[in-house]
Amino acid sequence: MSVLENWDEWKNFLGDRLNHAENEGMNGGVISNLAFEIGDYLAKQVESKNPQEKVLADLWSVASQEEQHAIANMMVKLVQNNGSH
After folding, report:
1. What would be one Pfam family of this protein (predicted)?
2. What pLDDT does residue 9 have?
3. Which of 5, 20, 56, 77 has the greatest number of C-beta atoms within 10 Å?
4. In a domain, 85, yes or no
């Protein structure tokens, strides 16, 4: 089963990656830009595996670039306290 198929596992996976990036000294601006690039790639190239991802992809598809950055930043906030720590 892919990590993308379960929303909670996906959030934990992202949380682990975010924690790693922060521990390596990556600043918030770089993290924000990476989140935007990953969100853009997923929305355009990867089929949604669960209802939550479908909602995000649908929102992404109608959002302006500024709104897409906001969505990416909200995802970062959402997963900040997730992961295995």
Report:
1. DUF3243
2. 87
3. 56
4. no
The CA-to-CA distance between both ends of the chain, in Å, stands at: 22
Examine the pLDDT at 85 and tell me if it is beyond 60: no
Tokens at 6, concatenated: 């379960």
CA–CA distances in Å: residue 27 to residues 16, 18, 85 = 16, 11, 18
Which domain range does residue 27 map to? Answer: 3-79
Phi and psi (nearest 5°) for 2? -75, 150
Looking at the structure of the chain, the number of domains it has is 1
59 found inside a domain:
yes
- Would you state the torsion angle of the CA atoms of residues 8, 13, 17, 19, taken in this order, to the nearest 10 degrees? 50
pTM of the model: 0.84
